[in-house]
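The records we work with from here on pair a chain with its fold. Taken together, the tokens spell out the fold as the letters spell out the chain. The record below shows the convention in full.
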Amino acid sequence: MRSQDEMTAFVKVVELASFTAAAEHLQVPKSTLSRWISRLEERLGAQLITRTTRSIYLTELGQAYYSRCRQIISSIEEAEESIREMNESPRGTLRITLPSSKQGSPFTQMLLQFLGAYPDVTLEILTTTRYVNMVEEGFDIAIRAGNLEDSSLVAKKVFDVQQHVVASPAYFEKHGTPASPDDLLHHKCLYHGVHSEQAQWITRQGRPIPIRPHFCSNDVELLHEAALQGYGLALLPGVLTADDLLQKRLLPALQDHITGQTGLFILYPPNRYLSQKVRVFVDFCTQHLRKHYQQLFEKT
């Protein structure tokens, strides 16, 4: 028997917590499976599993060996899957998490166009403002904006997005337009954060400017809507405001003084062999979003 088969048998016993269930899954007699595990332990010179009449338990060496075996088997499965997929069109289910968006565009059109181009792929979409642990929650892809924290995920930057101070025409008509960053203390500001006592924006020269938050939130969509309805000045990314600036629903302020930059990223787990469905979606998404926003920014 090959060592790979013994390894597979050991992993299946651990995952199913049962010799009987593992034998049924592998379609071999239970006695044969027990013999394979015993042979594996003899070859390694170590006890991997402690058995009782009702349960099995991993020894300390067994736990360490299981972790390595699981990684090896996953790599083998991924390699075999990648070879099979090379001769097939993308298929299967993609679980994707996106920033919560009331605008719909551009993600809505992008996803619908992808469905049309790849009909054998099923999409499961979660839109949310909370942080999603992709590995623990079983997601294939995440699209996120902002400055990313250090992560084990692969992050592909789609583009950099400038941030600008904006407000509605109604707000400027009622409260006036700030002429300098120091004027912000006399204006109502919409702050992306949850601690108003620390609220500040940064000038182009790197000088922090304290602001007087009228509304604080970690949801940039809420700030965007509040700005549209005239509740204050907001520092927002161009991916949200480009169309509003074009239609004059929002107007810029302090363009020569305050600006920022954030990125839009596509993230996915660092699998050695990237599945075809993930690969084609990453390429499709990158091209679509870059084209969409380049055209939109050229108009503003």
Summary: The chain has three domains: 3-86, 92-152+267-299, 161-262. The domain at 3-86 is CATH 1.10.10.10 (Arc Repressor Mutant, subunit A). Residues 48 and 65 are 8 Å apart (CA to CA). The radius of gyration is 27 Å.
